[in-house]
Amino acid sequence: MQHSSPRFSYCIAVLMLLMLSFRTLSAEPQAQAGRTTVPLHVTTGKDQGYTIKVLARREGSVLMIDLESMARALRLSFRDDQGVLVLDEALGVPGSSCMVMINNNFAKVVSKDPGHPKRIVQLQSAPASIQSKIYLPVNQACRLFTVWLDREVVYNYSSGMMNAWLNRKRFGESVGLIGLVKDEEQPTVQGNSRHADEVPTVITGIEIEKRENGVIISFLASGNPTQSSLLRPDAEGFVYFSLEKASCDVNTLSKIYSGGVVKAITPKQFDEGGLQFTVALDNKSFEITSVEFHRDEKKNRYVLYVRSNADVQEIRKKEIEQQNAQVIGRDVEKWKLNTIVLDAGHGGKDPGTIGFGGTREKDVALNIVHDLGTFISQKWPDVNVIYTRKDDRFIPLHERGKIANQSGGKLFISIHCNSSPNRSARGSEVYILGLHKNKEALDVAMFENSVIRQEEDFQEQYKGFSEEHLIMSSMAQNAFAKQSTSLAQYIIRPVDRQSSVNNARGVRQAGFMVLWTPSMPSILVEVGYLSNPEEERMLRDRQVQTKVAYGIFKGVQAYRKNYETTSRASLAE
Fold this sequence. Notes:
Blueprint: H1 4-26, E1 35-45, E2 48-59, E3 62-66, H2 67-73, E4 77-81, E5 84-89, E6 96-101, E7 106-111, E8 119-122, E9 128-130, E10 133-137, H3 138-149, E11 152-156, E12 161-165, E13 201-211, E14 214-222, E15 228-231, E16 238-243, E17 246-248, H4 250-253, E18 255-256, E19 262-269, E20 275-281, E21 287-296, E22 301-309, H5 312-335, E23 339-344, H6 361-379, E24 384-387, H7 397-406, E25 411-418, E26 429-433, H8 439-449, H9 458-461, H10 467-476, H11 478-498, E27 507-510, E28 522-529, H12 533-540, H13 542-572
Parallel strand pairs: 1-12, 13-17, 23-24, 23-25, 25-28, 26-27
Antiparallel strand pairs: 1-2, 2-3, 3-10, 4-5, 5-6, 6-7, 7-8, 9-10, 11-12, 13-14, 14-22, 15-16, 16-20, 18-19, 19-20, 21-22, 26-28
Helix pairs in contact: 6-13, 11-13
């Protein structure tokens, strides 16, 4: 026994070492910060299916889905075509492709049958590129695959699982390619076979006729007929009517209605000549039974027939009961202006404009932002102040908007100083996002946007930013345009008074990239001209900077009072 004891102890030690090694080898590697997975259960038939993990990551409170990983999980093929993610499916005949591009709110669906029209899917959030992968928020990723595949793909927030039913089409929501203009229906003109191509379709007006059982929407057209398609109402009551090659006056044909089935009609013009009308239906007050399409060749009209059943009193009664139960916990929060994002322009390696006396724009902007944040925190303890930068550091333009969105901002205010070859130019200006209306506004925007060239990947990050995309972005932000303009008007007067310049240059619009990303009312304040020696002297003075910040605060204060009063009145209706 004495001879066998050392051997026994040695065996025990070896066994323990092997067990420790096994545990080390079998342990999963620690996940990188932000990275995670989401289970996806795919139903392929009756009692048939599988569950697989999809790569994802958390950006703040937002769960982002890797689109390539999700396509792989759904057993779809994909490829990267010069920065555009192309997804392919063959669930039906003849199959189709879906093209997604980062920083672009519109995905394109192309059938493998050349005779089928292209479709456009509008995304609430533009796809983001993170570590060479393309991501979408989980609800937007599910919606994209649902609309494209015409299959139900949903995310359950309580279980944290996605579900996809590939064995059946969406019940009652299949995509209908209705009202296509066939080749034999194209009008011909004797003696000039090219004439048909020279008269494009133009939607000139919209008419709505109310009926007891619904409404008739007529899109008046001129020019040749074109292929059209209809995507029937989704859960929110949105109908998408698309024309392959057509145009219209977007501002004239943007309509808002009250007291009926149709709430609003909003046109979108696409780069390749396509036109899409988003028709918002009131599916809470009315039971929408069907939406059908017909082309009136004689009158050259595209007609939508919306049929509905409505017991208005009963529906209103139920709505009031639901609202009374939820208003304290949910609805009141909607109108509270409880988070303001302050952005000090430039910073770090980017000094911004520099005055003749050496005053740097980045320093003036940071001081004013600090003072403005102090006023807000002292006067409104219930308001959360978010800074895109608190010190002298370089923050890329696209990151500033991302900070605002992820923090749940209700207002975005960017502070800058102006510059001009004309040393006598002076005064403050407030800008909102939009196409420039004069060369001076364009020059200001081009200077402020030039900072992107100091970013390492600026060509990739901003390749979707163009005049055409700016038009689409401006239209997508129509919900904030009125509020942004109102905020700008409230701010311009007190800022000008506090800066002692007394030469307000007004509210303008231009294509500032820093205003491109925030999904909230957003403005850019040019507090004065550092190229003007007198204004440079004043703006270098800390007391003047504090006065300018107080002027901006007074403007925000007036805006908040009007905004919350109006919101309460709307909530009480």
